[in-house]
Amino acid sequence: MNWLKSEIGFSGWRFDFVRGYAPSITKSYVKNTSPEFAVGEKWDDMKYGGDGKPEYDQDEHRSALRHWIEEAGGGGGVLTAFDFTTKGILQSAVGGELWRLKDSQGKPPGLIGIMPGNAVTFVDNHDTIRPNTWAFPSDKVLLGYVYILTHPGTPCIFYSHYMEWGLKDSITKLVAIRKRNGIGSTSSVTIKAAESDLYLAVIDDKVIMKIGPKMDLGTLVPSNYALAYSGLDCAVWEKQLRNYSISL
Question: Is the pLDDT of residue 27 over 90?
């Protein structure tokens, strides 16, 4: 691994199927190679109700991710985990159940709600996109990116979505909004609405985003925010800086 770093030029690692070996092994890899970035794939089954949908409370699922990160030595450090909790809840929520996107404490319900600095968010990957697996609803993929690219955590863009799904322009614009406003892995989130047809949140008091078909937002978007991006059932606004002048 150190040879891959020093001779080939790799700077980080993706640890596959970390359920298959002890967290101490990952800890040893990270400790002895000092990567700039490292992420583990811990894909556990979520709890589902009798209707086939995820249960509202997924604290146990995200706590297992946090426990692995802490056991593998990444609490507050370089090691992260793919936020499968957020993916599972988000892909269910966009089907008219956006109330799922706020937990009982008023925070995001995935790993980003309890350990955002060590969470890697994603919409799909090479495993979940396969037929009959765990794919995000194909007609709602853009809503997924509006969410993860405006929220804390480290968002991961799926190559096929970017290059082959006609989403390159939209994703590029959302990335630019994220960068322009300095949204990072530990940015703050204030959830203003989480209803069946509307999810609206304020990030770092700089950006407001919404997903869902509801159009009547009332006073949820103040007048000092300007529309920066819009698409089908989604929009993002940026806070406008006031210009002050001094007469001498």
Answer: yes
pTM (predicted TM-score): 0.96
Domains of the chain in start order, with CATH, are: 1-187 (3.20.20.80)
Q: Which of 16, 45, 51, 169 is catalytic?
A: 16
Choose the catalytic residue: 7, 36, 41, 197.
41
Q: Is 44 a catalytic residue?
A: no
Is 169 tagged catalytic? no
Q: In what order do the strands lie in the sheet with 207-211?
A: 189-195, 198-203, 207-211, 234-239, 225-231
Predicted confidence at residue 75, as pLDDT, reads 59
154-179 residue pLDDT tens = 999 999 999 999 999 999 999 999 99
